[in-house]
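User: Here's a chain of 147 residues. Predict its fold as tokens.
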Amino acid sequence: MMRLPNMSHQQGFTLVTAIFILVIASVMSVFVISTTVTQQATSTYALQGARAYRAAQSGIQWGIRRVLEDNQWAVLCTGADNNFVVNDFNVSVICTFTQYTEGDFDFCVFQMASVATRGVFGSVDFVQRRLQLVLSENRLTKVSTCQ
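Assistant: Prediction complete.
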């Protein structure tokens, strides 16, 4: 007659397996959730960075128009208040100029910087972009135009 093995040594094996599977499933769930949250935050930061870039670009375009079309470079480049808001971004345009003369031609060289900022530095929602531009304009006269 054949004897069956003693089953008293195998008690609790199912419980250990169940706990192991629960731990693995929990670790995988935490990994998936943290990856999803990180991916959403990265997408949000990329979108805010692109919006800040466009706001800074609008500041540069505003400065170009003031210099070339409206001929208000003296106001723009002498420390006037060149701050405005574009879609919740504070935009600041800074301008300096230098005059050069070559023969019968006067050249005005304008250096502009536009900074778009949203949020407070050090906070999670802070974003800032800065664009710079050097613009040269030929006035075709001997008259001093940049002073």
